[in-house]
Design brief:
Length: about 210
């Protein structure tokens, strides 16, 4: 339902109407759909204005996270998330210096693309990097944040590919990535559970971390 944000939550918009219909078919609860539409308009279900809130924290075993939220009650949301972090044995502390702000674009092709040919065009368009999925049909492109929208539209047109989505994310710097395979299964499971609990909070838009 993230596409609703790019359309201002306008349910009269044909694309949004289709997305809502698809969500209903998949059995997504009505309240979840209504909340997504409301957030697309920048308001809560009660009609109160939403504000963006970010919480940075460190979770065991030394994994940095950035939690982005939209809420109509900043104190309540931060209180809930801080408690989740504390219960997991974590600490609320600055971590954004371990990440870079990046634009992320996903393009889709009906056929496998030539990576070298596409990479040349991607870099010429001003993007920073390109990654292909295993079948070579889905392109993940990274850009500077301010150029994300323009590069997304430009590449979709020049490459003749479907623009699936684009957004701005926090990407962990490679030198600070934490390999969790060296830790016990219990620690890995605990981390996954904590991240899942954070993501399930209705105010949370995204949880970024440097675990790999």
């Amino acid at each position: 339902m993230t596409s609703l944000k790019k359309t201002g939550g306008d349910v009269s918009n044909a694309k949004v109407t289709t997305l809502v219909a698809q969500a209903k078919k998949t059995g997504l609860p009505k309240d979840v759909i209504e909340r997504a539409v409301a957030k697309g308009r920048g308001v809560s279900l009660s009609g109160n204005a939403l504000e963006t809130v970010t919480l940075e924290a460190m979770l065991p075993p030394s994994v940095s996270v950035i939690i982005e939220c939209q809420t109509d009650n900043k104190n309540r949301t931060l209180g809930v998330l801080r408690l989740l972090v504390k219960d997991a044995g974590g600490t609320v502390t600055p971590t954004s210096h371990l990440f870079d702000r990046r634009g992320r674009i996903i393009l889709e092709s009906e056929e496998k693309v030539d990576e070298e040919e596409v990479m040349e065009k991607v870099l010429e368009a001003g993007a920073l990097d390109l990654k292909l999925d295993n079948d070579g049909k889905s392109l993940l492109i990274y850009t500077e944040p301010a150029q994300t929208a323009s590069i997304a539209q430009s590449l979709a047109a020049s490459l003749g590919l479907k623009l699936k989505t684009y957004d701005i994310i926090w990407m962990a710097r490679s030198e600070f990535v934490v390999g969790i395979d060296a830790f016990s299964v219990e620690i890995q499971s605990s981390l996954e559970e904590t991240i899942s609990q954070l993501e399930e909070d209705p105010s949370v838009q995204a949880v970024y971390h440097n675990a790999a």
